[in-house]
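Hi F.,

I've been meaning to write this up properly since the lab meeting, where we talked about keeping a consistent format for the predictions we share between groups. The idea is simple: the sequence comes first, exactly as it goes in, then the structure tokens exactly as they come out, then a line or two of notes. No screenshots and no reformatting. I'm using this chain as the first example so we have something concrete to point to.
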Amino acid sequence: MKRNISLLLLAAILLGTLTMLPVTAQAQSAGVTVTGSFPGGSFSGTLTITIFQAVNGVLQAVGTLTGTLTSTVGQVIGTVTSLPVTLPIQITQSSCSSLTIGILPTAVTLLNQAVSLGGTSVTITPPAGPLGNAVGSLLCQISSLLSNPLGGVGGILGGVPVVGGILSSLLNPLTSLLNSLLALLPGL
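Output, unedited:
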């Protein structure tokens, strides 16, 4: 019992410190597989997320894209390495046991090709042990924020800009919590 209280106290201290990070704090990398297509070929690569941010009411993942463009006959056209990108995201599912972040389809220019990146998603679940307790607590905070009695904003956070003080008051803590998750789980 005493050990559980100590672990909870440690998790609370860690959580309190992490949730005070500024929204623009650089977090460790997270790799997400991303694919796309363009006239004459396809793209396959990895998005490394460094921060989450909200701009004009739209949640975004900011990071770098690394991957290969390949022609329809399998010939490598070229590669991109650590190309800075900002992609729109949406929270598609949230609970105390998991969080799913959808990276919305978007167009980017890679090696002079207009590439349509397909949507993908990342599901975050708490690992075992004390780190899992801290991650689970963050997931609960995010879930609680998104199930706000003002109507639950999960479906509108991402992709569709919404203006208003209520949205800003939700997006700032949400991006802070998402960045805290990146700090705890660099491998998302």
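Notes:
The radius of gyration is 18 Å.
The helical segments are 2-18, 130-146, 165-184.

If this format works for you, I'll send the rest the same way.

G.
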